[in-house]
Amino acid sequence: xxxxxxxxxxxxxxxxxxxxxxxxxxxxxxxxxxxxxxxxxxxxxxxxxxxxxxxxxxxxxxxxxxxxxxxxxxxxxxxxxxxxxxxxxxxxxxxxxxxxxxxxxxxxxxxxxxxxxxxxxxxxxxxxxxxxx
Length: 133
What we know:
Layout: E1 3-7, E2 10-13, E3 18-25, E4 33-39, E5 46-53, E6 60-64, E7 72-77, E8 82-87, E9 96-102, H1 110-114, E10 122-123, E11 127-132
Parallel strand pairs: 2-11
Antiparallel strand pairs: 1-3, 3-8, 4-5, 4-9, 5-6, 7-8, 9-10, 9-11
């Protein structure tokens, strides 16, 4: 049984930075499309960033929602099985619970391209990010 465990959330002021980490364990078939989503109360879960891996190598193709382009960066360390979201120049509207997610490998890169939560099958428990003005 696979598990995704996030860490790194917290509170910062406008313009600050945070780094979120997600450690994946127990996925014997490997993961190809991994990503970050966020959700605030009363709103749908929003895709933030995704990475389609190079099959066991670090790096891959990255995808971002327009609101975070140029400020957030997603990366993967395949040796440590750790997905990272570096968030810079944070704004109050970035405040949300952030979730690490992974798609079933047989789904290929589609979930990453579309950043739709319904295309991802595995989820972490979430970590809270609060940005104050």
